[in-house]
Design brief:
33% of the residues lie in helices and 22% in strands. It is α/β, with parallel strands linked by helices. α1 packs across α5.
Length: 209
């Protein structure tokens, strides 16, 4: 069993926030034909399914913690304990300020870089899980960060946002294949399927590739 987690905050008022891009990715995943109905489990919303890979079918539990971002780790830990899932089989998709909008970086382990959802997961299960860093861009000034992440995506963002979420789902067989370069291959395939939008000069000054 693999655990694929999308981070966000519960409630209609947060649904379209940049901070909820992880929830959006999970919603795209469980719309597929091989996932069951949503259920309330482990202080979250879950859906069980299967993903076809080059090495056969892989069982997957999709999870959207409903504990609010800074307690996400409690929900993740409960799901892991119930299914006896190792940290290396946990993939967490979350918003990333330090990546340009539409970019994706996938890696195993690392720090939390101030992200409260990652901070909570690391406190509960350790650092050795896979992180899918989904770029939302940086507003430029530190004091603008909170209203930026808790602000809604603009209408102009909807094209790349939908494409990125769909690509993250379509490329999952590569990530679950279990090869040493799975994260890199997955990242490259997502970016091939959904190239990030081009930024203007002012935006580029505030972003990291």
């Amino acid at each position: 069993m693999y655990l694929i987690v999308g981070l966000g905050n519960p409630g209609a008022q947060y649904a379209k926030n940049r901070h909820n891009i992880g929830f959006m990715m999970i919603d795209a995943l469980i719309r597929g034909p091989f996932f069951g109905p949503e259920k309330k489990n482990f202080d979250g919303i879950t859906s069980e399914g299967q993903i076809e890979t080059a090495k056969g079918l892989k069982k997957v539990l999709a999870l959207k913690p409903q504990t609010y971002m800074n307690l996400s780790g409690q929900s993740v830990q409960k799901a892991m304990q119930f299914y006896k899932i190792k940290p290396e089989r946990v993939m967490v998709f979350h918003d990333e300020l330090d990546l340009a909008p539409g970019r994706l970086r996938m890696k195993l382990g690392g720090g939390h870089a101030g992200h409260n959802g990652l901070r909570s997961i690391m406190a509960n299960v350790g650092p050795n899980f896979m992180r899918g860093r989904m770029g939302i861009g940086h507003p430029g000034a530190k004091e603008d960060v909170l209203p930026w992440v808790l602000g809604d995506f603009a209408k102009a963002d909807q094209g790349w946002l939908s494409a990125l979420n769909d690509a993250c789902v379509r490329a999952l067989p590569m990530l679950l294949a279990g090869t040493p370069d799975a994260a890199e291959r997955y990242q490259n395939e997502v970016m091939r399927l959904a190239p990030a939008p081009k930024l203007d000069t002012r935006q580029i000054a505030n972003q990291k590739d």
